[in-house]
Amino acid sequence: MSTKYLVYTALMTAIIAILGFIPAIPLPIMPVPIVLQNIGIFLAAILLGRKYGTLSIIVLLLLVATGLPLLSGGRGGIGVFAGPSAGFLFMYPVITYLIGLVRDLYFKKINFVVLLITTIVIGVVLLDIGGTLLMGIMTNIPMSKSVLLSFVFMPADIIKAVIASFIGNIMLNHSQFKQLLK
Predict the structure, then answer these.
(1) What's the first-to-final CA gap in the chain, in angstroms?
(2) Fold for domain 3-181?
(3) In CA terms, which of 46, 115, 118, 176 is 20 to 30 Å from 160?
(4) Nearest-angstrom CA–CA distance, 128 and 131
């Protein structure tokens, strides 16, 4: 790992942590709020790819596990990995890797449509269904109801996917940014 990519990884971790300072939107029907940190998760995969994007998420989760309040609402500590949002936290590295994998495969011909479809299918659908299924297990909600609850997150997460794909497409197709990644 070069120093340059170490800095990029740390910078992306910091950006996601900063997004955690934006207050979460609580939902009355479930214990997991809507957060803006997903934009950072999506951007880590889009901008850094599978290796360094996933590494930035793992670093963030390790910092959270040590007690730093980097998640929305000032949450942190090992207890968040046993709470209702644990499923989403465990899915973050998985979706980052998968989105980053598609980004790496299509890096030479990346465009907004590829990024958006990938981010919606993996980042929205997989994250929301996987996260709510694990939330259901943690909170004793039946699986069928958990899957239905996942649809509550999808409209806001689709907007986040559009924002991340738009930003990622502009940056990945900018000549100066491409030079930074070489």
Answers:
(1) 13
(2) Arp2/3 complex 21 kDa subunit ARPC3 (1.10.1760)
(3) 176
(4) 5
**Side chain identity, residue 168:** G
| Three-state secondary structure readout of the chain | CCHHHHHHHHHHHHHHHHHCCCCCECCCCCCCCECCHHHHHHHHHHHHHHHHHHHHHHHHHHHHHCCCCCECCCECCHHHHHCCCHHHHHHHHHHHHHHHHHHHHCHHHCCHHHHHHHHHHHHHHHHHHHHHHHHHHHHCCCHHHHHHHHHHHHHHHHHHHHHHHHHHHHHHCCHHHHHHHC
To the question of pTM greater than 0.85 for the whole model, the response is: yes
pLDDT tens string 67-92 = 999 999 889 999 999 988 999 999 99
Q: pLDDT digit string (tens) for 26-46?
A: 888 878 888 999 999 999 999
Greatest distance between any 2 Cα atoms in the chain:
50
